[in-house]
Specification:
- The protein is mainly α.
- The longest helix is centred in the N-terminal third of the chain and has 21 residues.
- It is globular.
- It has a domain of 134 residues: Hypothetical protein af1432.
- The chain contains ten helices and no strands.
- It catalyses: P(1),P(4)-bis(5'-adenosyl) tetraphosphate + H2O = 2 ADP + 2 H(+).
Length: 194
């Protein structure tokens, strides 16, 4: 894949702020991949394409969810902010021929996480959460943890996200709960963690 041509496409497709966010996520993902022994190439491609559909019309994303058998219809019952990752995981194959399932999964789950996240899943999830332009309560703690412990940092990010959504009385997509529970077990090692 020609990265420079991809960046040109993304610059035309995304808003200025979203494009700059994408570049910061990519830089963060590359550093995490280098730190934790993951394919830098896969991290770079997944990070560049993670918000590929973020600026698409909602009706277009809805039609893709309804028509593609690889996407769960249940997405439509949750906030549309969750749609762009799964839709992008389908459209990048159509547009760029991306068939690497690990890359597609990292894009699909970058907003919600999931149980049994791969290292690449964790890197994209965390890079999106901690990129330098992000500024919200708890992000500095997650950034600091991400220096040495990828799984614990993902647990902190998942915990913060679930807590934030619940405090706002928002629904929480099931994969977010599954991610939290699985990461909690990985970090704390079992049911009785005090």
């Amino acid at each position: 894949m020609d990265i420079e041509n991809l960046k040109v496409d993304l610059k035309e497709r995304l808003t200025g702020g979203r494009y700059e966010h994408t570049l910061r996520v990519t830089d963060t993902a590359i550093k995490l991949a280098e730190n934790f022994g993951e394919s830098v190439e896969n991290a770079k491609i997944a990070a560049l394409l993670h918000d590929y559909c973020k600026c698409d019309p909602l009706e277009d994303m809805k039609q893709t969810i309804e028509s593609d058998s690889n996407l769960p219809d249940s997405l439509l019952s949750f906030h549309h902010e969750l749609w762009h990752g799964p839709v992008a995981s389908v459209r990048i194959e159509e547009k760029y021929g991306v068939t690497n399932q690990a890359v597609k999964d990292a894009i699909f789950f970058h907003t919600t996480g999931r149980a049994n996240m791969t290292k690449l899943d964790k890197i994209i999830f965390l890079a999106d959460y901690t990129e330098p332009g992000r500024n919200f309560p708890g992000v500095d703690e997650v950034r600091a943890t991400a220096e040495t412990d990828l799984t614990k940092a993902c647990y902190q990010a998942a915990r913060n996200t679930v807590r934030f959504l619940m405090e706002k009385n928002n629904t929480v997509y099931p994969d977010s709960f599954h991610a939290y529970n699985d990461l909690n077990q990985q970090v704390f090692g079992g049911i009785e963690n005090g």
